[in-house]
Design brief:
The chain is α+β, with helices and mostly antiparallel strands. It has seven helices and six strands, in the order H-H-E-H-E-H-H-E-E-E-E-H-H. The strands form two sheets. A four-stranded mixed β-sheet has the order 2-1-5-6, with helices on one face. A two-stranded antiparallel ribbon has the order 3-4.
Length: 174
């Protein structure tokens, strides 16, 4: 019985020590077969070269349907990864209503009408990138005519890194 108690005590102490060490050591491990949650080396180099603050405002605030909530979560995960690589990158989610209709129309940001049980919901799948004193908008949905409209939000989650990397490169090379 005493040996059993010593083993439990040693195991308990080992777990406590591991927990304490884990508080100071941070790492992420992508265990997916296709390394879906690992940034490509090209994207990492691009993000490392962001020398001044890059502010990204994603217009997916407010009420969203299930597919667009998934898209929002995937964007947040990607931008967390980018911010982890370079602290000059910051982001926030903005309700398009807060921007005002004038700014939306001025930048030709058309809503995507989504049918819900409550009626039609206008979703603005865009992001505003501000680098220095220059701003540009990007669409966070892929432009793929072969994808049915209803599946566009979920299909876009697979190409987010490419979409954001392309726009970050253009935004930082004004």
């Amino acid at each position: 019985m005493k040996k059993l108690n010593k083993k439990h005590l040693i195991t308990f102490i080992a777990f406590i020590a591991l927990f304490i060490i884990a508080q100071f050591v941070y790492t992420r491990i992508d265990m997916t077969k296709d390394k879906r949650f690992t940034l490509t080396s090209t994207t990492e180099k691009l993000v490392e070269n962001v020398k001044q603050p890059l502010k990204i405002e994603i217009l997916l605030g407010g009420d969203l349907t299930g597919d667009y909530r998934i898209l929002k979560n995937e964007i947040q995960f990607l931008l967390d990864e980018l911010r982890e690589k370079n602290s000059n990158i910051s982001y926030s989610f903005v309700d398009p209503v807060d921007l005002g209709q004038a700014e939306l129309e001025q930048n030709k940001l058309a809503p995507v009408p989504i049918k819900t049980d409550k009626g039609i919901l206008n979703v603005y799948p865009y992001a505003k990138l501000t680098y220095g004193d220059k701003s540009t908008y990007m669409e966070v949905l892929v432009n793929d005519p072969s994808t049915p409209f209803e599946k566009l939000a979920l299909a876009s989650t697979e190409k987010l890194e490419y979409l954001f990397a392309e726009k970050i490169q253009k935004a930082t090379n004004f």
